[in-house]
Amino acid sequence: MADILIIEDEENISNLIKMALTQTGFKCECAFDGEQGADMIEHKKYSLILLDIMLPKINGFELMEYIKNYEIPVIFITAKSDTIYKVRGLKLGADDYITKPFDIAELQARVEAVLRRYNMTEPHIKVGDIDINTSSRIVTKNGEIIELTLKEYEILLLFIKNKNIALYREMIYEHVWNEPYMGDTRTVDLHVQRLRKKLDLKDKIQSVYKVGYRYVE
Amino acid sequence: MADILIIEDEENISNLIKMALTQTGFKCECAFDGEQGADMIEHKKYSLILLDIMLPKINGFELMEYIKNYEIPVIFITAKSDTIYKVRGLKLGADDYITKPFDIAELQARVEAVLRRYNMTEPHIKVGDIDINTSSRIVTKNGEIIELTLKEYEILLLFIKNKNIALYREMIYEHVWNEPYMGDTRTVDLHVQRLRKKLDLKDKIQSVYKVGYRYVE
DNA sequence: CGGTTTTGTATCAAATTTGTATCAAAGTAA
DNA sequence: TTACTTTGATACAAATTTGATACAAAACCG
């Protein structure tokens, strides 16, 4: 089950949240100031962070900037019902916010919603500016959809799963075509060329003389 | 969709609520004092009532006693953030309360939460301008009923439950027909075509070459 | 039963993908 | 450098896949 980090200085609120979420089946840990929070994030991979804005040492917004590097979903906790704070939090990349005093059921619901949203996000593979959504089979480059044929798509996937490894033509062929390689065909080359062209990968897909190809970086 | 009755004497607040909820897809009607509210409740079955406490003629608490007989969920609206009022309201059988000034998104969320709790929300699935009522199996597009055959309906449901996922023909067939896919049939294609035509989904149902189909957005 | 609706096959046209051929360019080894 | 091999680029033809339509079989319904 998901591990949740609660960063909140008011201990009674912190405990309340912990109780509510533990009851729902989440594992919770608490930090009581921004510094401690940052420390804990560094040492353990959490599924979600509940982050108070008014915190000692490092405040929630500052900590948010730091958390962004970890790609962990965040729900802001704020005593201010002031919309400006909410907007600012959401702009910073928070996934939701909740204002004190809050409804326990609501908190539970929001935590679950955010986690669902995150797990639901289709398995994305990101490499540089290329993004492969393996469930929709949509490939984008800088957000723009690039139409790939079946073979191209599968070759791309093979490359990206084997970054920085020189792949033999034989290997590529047998993996993508699912049939033995009878040697001496230019088929693989052609598809690799098309892939390079469509995704502008002249540099990243290197040809390895007499061997095959290699996707670098 | 759910009918909501807003009983609130301040017309600008009333309108704000109405706008917010209409936008979310609810039908709203307004009463401006307790007497009018009671009258409307008597003449129509509402799914939910938003009830202000401070009302002319009959106040919210008194009206609450009356509403109890109708088993309609109630959310209190109160200017007083005073806990005593909240407790009193909830004890009377309100399902939730919200204090003025409130956040529109919060109001929408609470209304939906309460309706969900009461299972008042009919099993609707909405996607774009298409609305599927899974209990009546009625499909509408922009409010207009579209007659779908069984297979079409089930394929549509499959698509909509798997938005943005490329579905293999095999998968579609086995899910809808409940029997193994022996390959090499155009059956699925044909039904998908018919679905596209009836619901004008040429763009949204995309064919994934050599794979199957994908419903986008 | 008879008529209607739904469902599936067949057929053909259009679109897309895939693979071969060809030639130019680049790489390798002696 | 030279001779040779390998790869890049392009064009084009073959093969495959999908869209569209018509029509027959099957199911449905009074």
CATH level 1 name of the largest domain in chain A: Alpha Beta
Shape of chain A: elongated
Largest interface: A-B, 16 and 13 residues
Mean pLDDT of chain A: 82
User: How many structural domains are formed by the residues of chain A?
Assistant: 2
Largest sheet of chain A: 5 strands, parallel
Structural class of chain A: alpha/beta
Describe the fold and architecture:
The first copy, chain A, folds into two domains: 3-120, Response regulator (Rossmann fold), CATH 3.40.50.2300; 124-215, Arc Repressor Mutant, subunit A, CATH 1.10.10. In chain A, 42% of the residues lie in helices and 23% in strands. Chain A contains eight helices and twelve strands. In chain A, strands 2-1-3-4-5 form a five-stranded parallel beta sheet, sandwiched between helices. In chain A, 26% of the residues are buried. The interface between A and B is medium-sized, with 16 and 13 residues.
Write the topology of this structure:
2 copies of one chain form a homodimer.
Chain A: E1 3-7, H1 11-24, E2 27-31, H2 34-43, E3 48-52, H3 60-67, E4 74-78, H4 83-91, E5 96-99, H5 104-120, E6 124-127, E7 130-133, E8 138-141, E9 144-146, H6 150-161, E10 166-168, H7 169-177, H8 187-199, E11 205-208, E12 212-215
Parallel strand pairs in A: 1-2, 1-3, 3-4, 4-5
Antiparallel strand pairs in A: 6-7, 7-8, 8-9, 10-12, 11-12
Helix pairs in contact in A: 1-5, 2-3, 6-7, 6-8
The structure holds a DNA duplex (30 and 30 nucleotides).
